[in-house]
Design goal:
The strands form two sheets. Strands 4-1-5-10-9-6-7-8 form an eight-stranded parallel beta sheet, with helices on both faces. It has eight helices and ten strands. The protein is an alpha/beta fold. It catalyses: agmatine + H2O = urea + putrescine.
């Protein structure tokens, strides 16, 4: 791919057009081929970019401006409709290219399966990798209705690849009995229901390590993010999610990649869901790119 020709539609607010100067790369993964309830997250990346125009470019939380970070918006990866195997392959190849240029990948989903090929590539570049996962769902199934490639399986694949002891899960409030039992016996740092305090307690143990952060927007209660494919009552507030991002940003971990996934704009005519995702991405960029 020629990165200077990679744009598709709008770009995220404040993005540079200078690939060479960019420290980070935003890219979309418009895929919802394996969802188990409501489709539509393939339209998430484009809408998050569009609504980002409502944001200020200054973070009053982190006291930094977006202009202090150089990031390039590469647009959406063109994925073959309905083909998860080839889509996963293309996502992985794209992210490997970004990492090979020494840049930090910031992904927009798309269903949560898209995180699997990204982490696989990040792990090849950073073998001491830890993954911080904020979600309503455990995503620890070995398969869903016989399909190993599913938005219900990415964290199981990641745990088996990097070691369960290197996976940190927060906010989980939905899953099968088998998923919860696997999380509790495998060595995963498993924190159901809550996010902020357990994350605060875990971060010191990750000091100095490369970390990948993946946020499923449904970690938020549906009152704050109705526009998602599998809403789950009992979640955290948008303020708590921002606080979690800021805890990571102010910690001594080295964020080497991040994503925010499962925004499905069609189910939220108020657009509070893509706006929340856009603000989270703004804080990630400002906070994670040092």
């Amino acid at each position: 791919m020629r990165f200077d020709e990679a744009y598709s539609g709008n770009v995220f607010i404040g993005a540079t057009q200078d690939w060479d100067a960019a420290q980070a790369v935003i890219y979309g993964m418009p895929m919802d081929w394996t969802v188990s309830f409501r489709p539509g997250s393939r339209f998430g990346p484009a809408r998050v970019r569009e609504v980002s125009l409502v944001l200020e470019e200054f973070s009053p939380y982190l006291r930094r401006e977006m202009a202090e970070v150089k990031y390039f918006d590469a647009g959406d990866i063109p994925l073959p409709f309905g083909n998860p195997e080839k889509s996963v392959e293309k996502i992985g190849a794209f992210v490997d290219e970004v990492l090979s240029h020494g840049k930090i990948p910031f992904g927009l989903g798309g269903e949560h399966l898209v995180t699997w090929p990204v982490v696989r590539e990040v792990y090849r570049h950073f073998p001491d990798l830890a993954v911080i996962h904020l979600d309503a769902h455990a995503d620890l199934r070995t398969d869903y209705e016989g399909e190993a490639l599913s938005h219900a399986t990415p964290l199981r694949k990641i745990a088996e690849l990097i070691g369960p002891q290197n996976v940190y899960q927060f906010g989980i409030r939905s899953g099968t009995k088998e998923e919860f039992e696997y999380a509790e016996r495998s060595g995963i740092h498993f924190h159901p229901f809550d996010v902020v305090e357990p994350l605060r307690n875990e971060l010191p143990g990750l000091k100095g390590r490369p970390v990948y952060v993946t946020v499923d927007i449904d970690v938020l209660d549906p009152a704050f993010a109705p526009g998602t494919g599998t809403p789950e009552p009992g979640g955290i507030t948008s303020r708590e999610l921002l606080e979690a991002i800021h805890l990571i940003a102010r910690s001594d971990v080295r964020v080497v990649g991040a994503d925010i996934v499962e925004v499905a704009p069609a189910y939220d005519p108020t657009e509070q869901t893509p706006v929340a995702a856009a603000k989270v991405l703004r804080e990630m960029l400002i906070g994670f790119v040092k």
